[in-house]
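Checklist before submission:
- one chain only
- standard amino acids only
- sequence pasted in full

Submission:
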Amino acid sequence: MVRTVSELLDERVAKTPSATCYEQKARGASERVSWAEFTRRADALSLALREAGLGPGDCVAVMGQTTGEWAVSDLGVLGAGGVSVGVYSSLTARQVAHILGDCKAKMAFVGSRAELSVVREAAELAGGLLLLVGWGEVEAEPGVKPLSELLRRGAELAASSPDRIGELRRMRSATDLALVIYTSGTTGLPKGAMLSHGNCVAMVKTAEEIVPKDIGSDDVTVSFLPMAHVAEHVIGLYGRINTGMATRYVGSLESQVVLAAVQETKPTVFGSVPRIFEKAYAQIRARVAAANPSRQAIFRWAERTGKQMSRHRRGGTPAPVGLRLQHAIADRMVFAKIRGAFGGRVKYFISGAAPIDVEILEFFEACGMRVLEVYGLTECCGIATANRSAAPRFGTVGRPLPGVEVRLAEDGEVLVRGPTVFMGYLNRPDATRDALDAEGWLHTGDIGVLEDGHVKITDRKRNLIVTAGGKKVAPAAIEALLSGETLLGPALIVGEGKPYISALLTLDLEEARAATGLRQGSPKELAHHPTVRERALAAVERANQELAKYERIRRFRILDRELTIAGEELTPTMKLRRKAVTEKFKDEVDSLYSNGAGPELFDLGKGEALQ
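Returned file contents:
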């Protein structure tokens, strides 16, 4: 029986040693690494780290883009008996110093000069490091131990002591701490969630139910989300170790780079946050709107046909012969081209971290691309509930995974219990007691409802707005409706104790510049551009059509400055820090409820910007 992540890797290499673990392009060359080679590197690193002074339970920070070196570093640390601590590359030195000091990191790995500079400054603030390891462009930097050198030394140690790796494996148990994953901290300093080896193994084993049984070493995905996040770290990396699926490491979050990698790799499985699906959907809609009337009519017919067909599939009922024939024509004329943008081979998609509009799910389903929405937190290893590939229920986040219990508290808060629930927060006993009750239930902080065993998340418990009229409004639902407009970034819905709901809108600068043609446009120029203003107003009006009267956005502003992680307005996962943004933009929020005017203030009571 597999007890630890290292033993999970042993199990994988015993099954498919020569199959591909990962591919990547680095320094102009392509690299393919098998499971046997990946394991050899990880084990060599484990031995070298032990020799360098890493002891059982010592924490090691890993900061870098999503690459094979990150994965090798992670498994090397775990194999040595250490604790892996992922650090987002977007964090400031002060933020990194908090993490290094909180977990008492003994060593750190970095992959770029920018990250090296941040870690060095952070280490000085936090009290220093025993060893600083680098890969790629930083291997030759002064004071940095090259990862390649550690791998060579580890290989020598493995040759001279062939039983040493086995000894290290036997020293570890399922209850040992494996990872400390720092949550985004939307309301304050991030907390370190402690995940045991047993938590991680339970996660990837129970997650097997949500995927088709034929997923294995012949399948491939694309990895680009930050490895410091639980989704790419546990579900992605450890999940691939469990299934044997290969990946292509992209090493970039830029949408064009990711899309190019997808089209080249032609993945069979693809997981992402909702934004990439929202952008794809909006771009398809924009192209259709620009097409001639006959092409628009063909697209609308194909979409209707696809949705009718998908309802039969989800309901398990046979489609009429005529519909099947029409769908075959629609697939050849329209849907196959859309699937081609994702490589044409994807068996299913996984979406998590934020809600996704049902309209988008139905559209992709009509195109023959099923998106499985999942739900979870860092504190339960990433996934607690999931839609199954055989019968997803759109608008929900599915049913609990095997062995995972879910129930609702009296106030509607979602509670989770099971083998994937974390050990607690590092150095935060009070926070741990708030999150885990005496019966082992994790209090998620999310409000939800149950529909025939399927969970539907409505909002965060602390985010619920109570208007002056006593109406309770879930801002996340409104924000999800706005997310279909690619020009917009995260929105802040406000209205606590106020007579109506208002919003502060932010911009996706890349999309706004593309739409306006202002390639170097500042946030202020973009916020006042007619195209941006028109599309923002249209997005709000569309959202309002789906909302009850008391939920509708009456007034909104487009912020004319960029929100940043460094400014502590966004989390590393690009979520708004609501409290920080509300306080920082207090004047802008107050203006939404005053008699002030200006071209930047929209009042939908009049249907136009206030002049």
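Reviewer check: Residues 274-458 form a domain with the Rossmann fold fold (CATH 3.40.50.12780).
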